[in-house]
Amino acid sequence: MKTRQVVLIVLAVLVAQGLALAKHKNHYVFNSFDPPGSVFTVPVGINNNGLIGIQYVDAEGVWHSVLLQNGRYKVIDLPGATNTLDSAPNDQGQDALGYFNPPDNYMHPALYWKGHYKFLPDAPGELNTAGSAINARGHISGVAWSDNFTIVHGYLWDGRTYHIYDHPDSDVHYTIAIAINNRDQIAGWYNTSDGVIHGYLKDRDRYTDITVPGAPNTDACGINNWGAIVGSYGEAVPGPVGLMGSHAFMLWKGIYSTLDYPGAEATFPMGINDRNQIVGVYQDTAGTFHGYFATPRYGK
Length: 300
Description:
Layout: H1 2-6, E1 22-23, E2 28-33, E3 40-46, E4 52-57, E5 63-69, E6 72-75, E7 83-85, E8 95-100, E9 107-113, E10 116-119, E11 128-134, E12 140-145, E13 152-157, E14 162-165, E15 175-180, E16 186-191, E17 197-203, E18 206-210, E19 218-223, E20 229-233, E21 247-252, E22 255-258, E23 266-272, E24 278-283, E25 289-296
Parallel strand pairs: 1-22
Antiparallel strand pairs: 2-25, 3-4, 4-5, 5-6, 7-8, 8-9, 9-10, 11-12, 12-13, 13-14, 15-16, 16-17, 17-18, 19-20, 20-21, 21-22, 23-24, 24-25
């Protein structure tokens, strides 16, 4: 159950009011994919070389981590772990992992690079630590928690020290840090006691609100080095990384654009690189979750 709590994404129906969003689906080419053996696919990030980090669940309910590049999958499960959760890789191919390891069955952090694993220290005072993304400086964003994922803190790991934080407006102490760029800007979301999900951008000690106009909930899931942000918006319902909306958005220079997977019941973008290539999750009409890769068609 803990694994599913860590990676539950929430599905939703959009209730949009006020300012209409730009529609960009015709300017992107979408492709679906699933690793062999996957019944539930969650791509979590893409670097500037096209390397995609993926989490997936097999038929036995075990979470695995794989890297995908040029059509080839590479499994990077931590040896001996019962479940391994991948993150968004950096341009060097480094990957922050979260893994469950018997006998304690808590989540711990590790680093994967070129076939080697390095164990990282746990966040101080917390039982569980999971990375969500790593930037070119080797700095990691992620989440730390102790009991049943009810109180969750975001963090920045700078290679030596954990900088743990809570969004100042989260009165229920539930803050998710899910993406980081090379400027150490962190994108994520937080919950409030009224049940609303709020997206945010953290730049050092300054927080900027990320809210799709008229949407009841917004979460931010990916950010590139140019400052483009992707995420989802809409009514909150359960699904792989917390509470999320069912429609995809991109935010660039203050403009929100809708970017749904064609024909999908719900779309959740999880990462964006500097070419504005996007990876994420969509739910088909049968209720199954698949990974997708979207690339822009400039000039068309």
